[in-house]
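Form 7-S
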Amino acid sequence: MESETAHTGYRQGVHHIALTIPPGTQAQVRAFYGDILGMTEIPDTHDEGECHFRSGDMEFDFNVELGTRIPRQAHPGTLVPDIDALATRLAEQGVTIEWDDKFLGYRRFYARDPLGNRLQFLQQIQPGS
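Output:
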């Protein structure tokens, strides 16, 4: 009998998150994700007015779609190295921060981009902290 390989699931990391945005909102997306969050914009190879941003191994793709509705609760959860510095930076730019201590082992908060997309930022709590 051959031994079975243990199933490792699908957790290898997230490459990108794709969100839809209404036409004409690209400048708001660029200002928030590029200027405030400091992500690097990746040129759109399809020239369809879409926006793409990268930070480390994570990409956010914003696809333009007529009639887009922003979901209230759906969100990406992004790990960050210094959650306090990010919270300060966002607050200084007028972004509302909503801290949530209900996730064991992590500090986290929610914020919304200018279009209302919900974002969650997390930093793992180090043992002894």
